[in-house]
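## Example record

The block below lists the input lines for one assembly entry, exactly as stored, with component labels intact.
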Amino acid sequence: MTGTTDAPRSPGRPRSTRAAEAIIEATLDLLAEGSTIEAISIEAIAARAGVGKATIYRRWPGKGALLHDALRTLKGAPPQPVGRSVREDLILLVGAVGHNLDPRAAKIMPCLVPEAQRSPEHYALYQNIIEPRRAAMREVLRRGIRAGELRADLDVEVTMAMLTGPMLIQRVMNWNPDLDEAGLPEKVVDGLLAGIRAR
Amino acid sequence: MTGTTDAPRSPGRPRSTRAAEAIIEATLDLLAEGSTIEAISIEAIAARAGVGKATIYRRWPGKGALLHDALRTLKGAPPQPVGRSVREDLILLVGAVGHNLDPRAAKIMPCLVPEAQRSPEHYALYQNIIEPRRAAMREVLRRGIRAGELRADLDVEVTMAMLTGPMLIQRVMNWNPDLDEAGLPEKVVDGLLAGIRAR
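Predicted structure tokens for the full assembly:
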């Protein structure tokens, strides 16, 4: 509904765009401060954004749709593989796992994981953030198989978990304090490409 | 202080052992029902276990020490590697990652992860569960290097993250609904041993 408000335009971006941004920001601020996706309310978001509830409902049918947009905004789009080599593309994508430009993500994402398991709606919100990232990685692996760079019998979904898992547990769970994170994406990709068995 | 209470013994296990078990069980029940490690109180645990607070303080100096024991009880000891082959031992240990005999663990563990990041005390509780599992895996990998089965230049900490990560994100985070978990430990170990590059 951008640009359809009857209020006079202020200079710069349309008023409704600014309101939408304020609503998204208020949602992310509240989540980062500890509101759960279960407990957060349209009332609280409206109050924090300095808008009326009606302004939120003009743009989003309900809390789920607003959270969907807010969480996608938080994580941004996955990086675009360059397409020169499977190794380089995987390092790019693996390096982005659990790496957040927005500092609020470090507070919101770990708490989302247990919440995601509580209902199908919450799980869908969580998958809506992850699936674009998985899709980008899946495409690189399939390209590698087609080009003969990767084993023809590769289990793509298992391989994605092997590339993503080490980064996620280390960056999101802070799994091992003795693990040096410098160069971890390269080490993970090269370790998996070559294998660890002595030859 | 097992056996030092002045009450007459009932048949079977000593009274203080039964009290300690009830206290551990009450702690785990409360955590599984959604109490955070921040919010859970000695008062609530005593009430749930049907004991006085003094009974708890006779055995544990405070909440941190009680949570330490309760969470270790919840997870149990890691499985013992057989020592026949690195591959078999790794499959055993990888298969145990995120696998919980106690159904309460599935409710408690994911919520522990974000809480663990909030203070050094909480992080220590979390590491106290994980470190015995990492130690067992580290020993198998070091044995494999010494025996010449694994690459001499292997980064052991990175390799542990690569073995643990896929299991943890799938079992604890329910990361990818399209990933078939059947045989996942074998697939992870074999994929990492051999590598994914075409030959």
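Chain A touches chain B through 50 residues (CB under 8 Å). Residues 15-72 of chain A form a domain with the Tetracycline Repressor; domain 2 fold (CATH 1.10.357.10).
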